[in-house]
């Protein structure tokens, strides 16, 4: 029971461009320094490539590109946040390339507004809500929508089919 309360109020915050985003900490597996990724042909532009994480292949998503923006510019502060996404009865690890990780903060449910229907540059189904802090807003992401495993799975199947037909 206590863990669900933690998920509702604790978020890892990070920067992507000039905006501050948050993901519930129960979705976070780890944070890694950005290292080179292996690119995969025929993937959508927002799939930067894959990394080897303790023997598992983990796709890396370029978050700004997923939101229809410019590609991330990798810097010394760039990180990959490894998140666990639910897919049917399994959980899958996916990496998100971000400009910088900030901190874990508490945002009580009473300080979270519903996703706006206008004014945001991000599709509203990607947004779980907007956290209101004293001096800023935090865009809380709906991890299962932003990192749609169904969409990634269909891409993986397409690449496999194309590779087998050659």
**Strand arrangement, largest sheet?**
8-1-2-11-10-9
pLDDT below 50 for ≥5 consecutive residues: which ranges? Answer: 1-7
Overall 3D form: globular
Overall structural class, as computed from helix and strand content, comes to alpha+beta
Number of domains: 1
Overall residue-averaged pLDDT value = 80
| Known CATH architecture | Beta Barrel
Largest sheet: 6 strands, mixed
Please state roughly what percent of the residues sit in beta strands, choosing from under 5%, 5-15%, 15-25%, 25-35%, 35-45% or over 45%. 35-45%
**Straight-line N-to-C gap:** 52 Å
> Helical segment tally?
4
Strand and helix order: HEEEEEHEEEEEEHH
CATH T-level topology: OB fold (Dihydrolipoamide Acetyltransferase, E2P)
The count of DSSP E runs of length 2 or more, i.e. the number of strands, is 11
The CATH homologous superfamily name equals CheA-289, Domain 4
CATH class: Mainly Beta
Describe, in plain words, how this protein is organized in 3D.
- The protein has one domain (2-165): CheA-289, Domain 4 (OB fold (Dihydrolipoamide Acetyltransferase, E2P), Beta Barrel).
- Strand 10 and strand 11 (137-141) form a beta hairpin.
- It has 166 residues and is of the alpha+beta class.
- The longest helix is centred in the C-terminal third of the chain and has 17 residues, at 149-165.
- It has a 6-stranded mixed sheet.
- It has helices spanning 2-9, 63-66, 143-146, 149-165; strands spanning 10-16, 19-24, 28-33, 47-53, 56-62, 79-87, 90-98, 100-106, 112-113, 127-132, 137-141.
